[in-house]
């Protein structure tokens, strides 16, 4: 593997600026790596080889003229296949959108283009972002680069695996209940769910609009900050987008990397941990807490009693919104159309197309959502879930009145075996226990690698949560912890991942 691939995006920016590498050479190195390992990892659903090289050549030409478009101009990126891209298919991991090429770019994709980042391709995901393992993709699962018999997390397993396998220095994901942070945790990468509204959702094919958020998937905290700085900000095309800009997140990350956390108050969420959590996860989490203390932070325990109901509330709110969102896939305007024999009515065509086009998990959630929204049940289920949501928001408000950030392990376990939880949806859902509260309340969260669990040698994620609009705190504290951990390890965690040389051959 080319040494170039191991560099962070921030390091690549410097090499590009110094003229030591070209964007074309860098992009080609990524494409070569994809050719080498992606037959095994299957992080990508679509590879934009020619397009990416042309975009890289344009970046190199701009650099010669001294006309850079953004700090990340020339650094290649992979994009989750739930974000629309002109000229590249957008399937959302579903058969119902196989071959669909959108006529418009998601705002974040437009910002990548306007920032000069070559787009390597589209990454694999659970169908319509429903899942925690990427096994619900209609195009086959993605493998975890640490152990290819294990899941890379989900729904954004493709973006996380692409970054963990050094196929791409940067990726974009989306997080409705943890789909950026949980894949980050189990692949040893960094993933951020920004404050709801901090990044435009325009062109993000909606699963649950009130929960969905686009965010960065990277190998370092600073890289995530650079990416959120680039794609964030107000968008008139998204009515839920925040009117004001956040402070520079890259500045916050650089400040944090100095490692001084004196005066910071950290709250450990009592309800997220303990019985049922993998011991190796808890051990690494506790060690990180000690590092935070050594850096001057005060660590206290905080109770968020309503968090125990978060999973139940999420699995009502999300399917309700999803069942409504997915109604538009009716074979009439675009997407798969199956015409039954005989003299089928429009409804027969819709039924046959949706039956053939959606997978089991999507159908399960459509049925769940439709049931919970039906008259007579609406108050008992959907309205109650919304009340729980308010209670969770109040727990966050009360906690943030006492502490600056909240922390927990990102996920209760490390990566499980492919197939292990596929027939047990509830067991799969439980992987999101720690990530879901942030989506229900709209607050931002980051997951960064905290080391490898003793039992299985697999990555453990450390989650930091901050109040809405205080994304800079995640980056400051995250960069501090990352610097302290790397000082202990002597190198980034991912340098210990299997090399996968020649994996596809
Ligand atoms: N794993 C969660 C689910 O299945 C979260 C998915 C997501 O964040 N898109 O719904």
UniProtKB/TrEMBL annotation:
Domain Amidase, residue spans: 26-474
BP terms from Gene Ontology: translation
Gene3D superfamilies listed in its UniProt record: Amidase signature (AS) domain
Catalytic residue positions: 80 (charge relay system), 155 (charge relay system), 179 (acyl-ester intermediate)
GO molecular function terms noted in the UniProt entry: ATP binding; glutaminyl-tRNA synthase (glutamine-hydrolyzing) activity; transferase activity
InterPro entries for the chain: Amidase, Amidase_CS, Amidase_dom, AS_sf, GatA
GO cellular component, one term: glutamyl-tRNA(Gln) amidotransferase complex
Keyword match Ligase: yes
Top enzyme category: ligase
Keywords for the protein's UniProt record, in alphabetical order: ATP-binding, Ligase, Nucleotide-binding, Protein biosynthesis, Transferase
Catalysed conversion reaction: L-glutamyl-tRNA(Gln) + L-glutamine + ATP + H2O = L-glutaminyl-tRNA(Gln) + L-glutamate + ADP + phosphate + H(+)
Family annotation (Pfam families): Amidase
EC number(s) given by UniProt: 6.3.5.7
Superkingdom of this protein's organism: Bacteria
Family: Belongs to the amidase family. GatA subfamily.
NCBIfam families: gatA (TIGR00132)
Function: Allows the formation of correctly charged Gln-tRNA(Gln) through the transamidation of misacylated Glu-tRNA(Gln) in organisms which lack glutaminyl-tRNA synthetase. The reaction takes place in the presence of glutamine and ATP through an activated gamma-phospho-Glu-tRNA(Gln).
Subunit organization: Heterotrimer of A, B and C subunits.
Record protein name field: Glutamyl-tRNA(Gln) amidotransferase subunit A
UniProt organism field: Nocardioides cavernaquae
């Amino acid at each position: 593997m080319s040494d170039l691939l191991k560099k962070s995006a921030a390091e690549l920016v410097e090499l590009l600026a110094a003229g030591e590498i070209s964007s074309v050479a860098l992009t080609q190195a990524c494409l070569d790596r994809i050719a080498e390992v992606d037959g095994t990892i299957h992080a990508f659903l679509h590879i934009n080889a020619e397009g990416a090289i042309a975009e890289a050549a344009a970046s190199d030409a701009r650099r010669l003229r001294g006309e850079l478009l953004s700090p990340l101009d020339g650094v290649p990126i992979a994009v989750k296949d739930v974000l629309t891209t002109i000229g590249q298919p957008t399937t959302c991991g579903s058969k119902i959108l196989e071959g669909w090429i959108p006529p418009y770019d998601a705002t974040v994709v437009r910002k990548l283009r306007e920032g000069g980042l070559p787009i390597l391709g589209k990454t694999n995901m659970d169908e319509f972002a429903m899942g925690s393992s990427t096994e619900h993709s209609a195009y086959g699962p993605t493998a975890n680069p640490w152990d290819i018999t294990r899941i890379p997390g989900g729904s954004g397993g493709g973006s996380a695996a692409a970054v963990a396998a050094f196929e791409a220095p940067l990726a974009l994901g989306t997080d409705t209940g943890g789909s950026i942070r949980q894949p980050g945790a189990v692949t040893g990468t960094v993933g951020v769910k920004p404050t709801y509204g901090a990044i435009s959702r325009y062109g993000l094919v909606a699963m649950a609009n009130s929960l969905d958020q686009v965010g960065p998937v990277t190998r370092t905290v600073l890289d995530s900050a650079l990416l959120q700085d680039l794609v964030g900000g107000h968008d008139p095309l998204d009515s839920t987008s925040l009117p004001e800009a956040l402070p520079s997140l890259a500045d916050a990350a650089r400040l944090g990397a100095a490692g001084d956390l004196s005066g910071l108050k950290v709250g450990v969420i009592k309800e997220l941990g303990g019985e049922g959590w993998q011991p190796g996860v808890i051990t690494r989490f506790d060690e990180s807490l000690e590092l935070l203390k050594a850096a001057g932070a005060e660590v206290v325990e905080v109770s968020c009693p309503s968090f125990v109901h978060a999973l139940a509330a999420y699995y009502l709110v999300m399917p309700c919104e999803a069942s409504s969102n997915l109604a538009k896939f009716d074979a009439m305007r675009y997407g798969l159309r199956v015409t039954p024999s005989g003299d089928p009515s429009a409804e027969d065509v819709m039924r046959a197309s949706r039956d053939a086009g959606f997978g089991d998990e999507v159908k399960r959630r459509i049925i769940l959502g439709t049931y919970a929204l039906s008259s007579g049940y609406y108050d008992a289920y959907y309205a109650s879930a919304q009340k729980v949501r308010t209670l969770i928001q109040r727990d966050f408000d009360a906690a943030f009145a006492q502490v600056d950030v909240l922390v927990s392990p990102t996920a209760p376990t490390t990566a499980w075996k492919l197939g292990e939880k596929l027939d047990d949806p509830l067991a799969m859902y439980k992987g999101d226990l720690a990530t879901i509260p942030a989506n229900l309340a709209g607050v931002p969260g980051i997951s960064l690698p905290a080391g490898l669990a003793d039992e299985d040698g697999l990555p453990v994620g450390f989650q930091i949560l901050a109040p809405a609009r205080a994304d800079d705190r995640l980056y400051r504290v995250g960069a501090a912890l990352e610097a302290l951990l790397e000082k202990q390890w002597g190198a980034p965690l991912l340098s210990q991942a299997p090399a996968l040389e020649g994996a596809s051959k």
